[in-house]
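Quick entry between incubations.
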Amino acid sequence: MFRFIIHNLSPLKHVPFFALWFDAAAMIWNMLFSPEITHTIEEIEHEVSAWRGVSTSLHKFGGVQFNYGGKELGHIHGHGIVDVLFSRRIKTSLIREERAEDHHSFKRSGWVSYYIRSAADRDGALYLLSLAYQKSAGCTTRVPDTPVPLSAGGHA
Amino acid sequence: MEKNVVQDPGSRYAIVKGIVYSNIFAVVAFALAYLLMNLNEAGGIVISWAEFILVPIGMGVIAMRFWRRKQQRLSARLPLVVLNTVIAIMLSAFFMGEGVICLVIVSPLLLGFMFVGVLIGHYIFHDDKKMLRVSTIFLYAILFFVDVFSFHGHANMVSDEMIIHAPPSVVWKYVAAHPVNTREPDYWLFSMGLPCPVQSTVSGHAVGDERKCIFSNGATFDEVIVQSVQDSVFTFDIVKQPEDPEIIGHINIERGQFILTRRADGSTLLTGNSWYTLKVYPAWYYDLWAVDITRQVHIRVMDHIKQLAEHDVQVHHP
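Done. Structure below.
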């Protein structure tokens, strides 16, 4: 149902407060019926917010938003969609490597989406966020195939 | 990862304080919005999104001001949010005299927005975010008072059609008035106790004559006929609506209409129209319920007319 609404009724996000309520409802639903997704989101939030210079806030359409240097790296919605911003070139590469999907709403942008369905998706989400973090933090080295260990104040 | 065990000494009564202070805030803010808004409104009591969105968000933020002392995962707050929602709903039942079905309808809205408040609190109650906290409170106050002093008049019209295997002249006999409908309702909210229409009476069929639409709990809509074209159109305006604790007390139903159209096979297409204005907001939530309930009222009345008219045809024109 959440996927249907996100893909087909996206104009609803412009209805005042609807998106926040919808995301909170999705989060509550997952807490009750898919706690694995909730725990995975919490683990990712815990991990990413520990990276040096990263702060968290509430995303305007609901969910946790990760910021670095005053700019958004990405966000995780309560229903388990991770949206991360890259350049169009990197986005094309990530989609080709099947590490991410086209963004659920903004197709003609650098945004990609990644779906958390179980605890196994944790590393994939962290990979994307760590890649975005490295780009924002000014790291020019090639990102390895495995997630970069950036926890607890680490730096790429 | 798990930090449930870490508590500071101030967390001892944090849960109780969060619940108590957030509910005190709710009562005060709700009363303020209710009084200010209904000084401004001429069309009956309106409960707007200041009450149904901003108050629960504020409750969540205030509760989180205390609950954050207990270092827990966000998901561990959910039982507290549910508990606080139940308390808020009980306060609504006590102070507002709301009916059970109204409370069932409002509960997802309250729960969702209270959780939004908890999320906002989760991110703004950090020592380095004083400016964000001040900005949030300022924005909250602006939104609250802008809404309270805004005009609220979301109007809608619901239309439904039903084919009746009887000519318009027979259907017409049951449009203005019909005897008591004893059939058990099959719509889930009617089965739960939401009043459903059971009978209509008229003092005559001419323009200006009175009509009454009686619901299962005795609530009666006083109406006046404004258009009566035999076998064709019957329109009435609602002049007095019952005070009701359930959802029909939160919708201003203004006009109703039946249109009878003869079909090629001699049967009748009966169209039922209702016009209403919402008295509860946000419209994106309550209008879904209003449309659904109005539709079910139409279907119940029109189906009753259908049964009566088709039975009439079978008895008199077998």
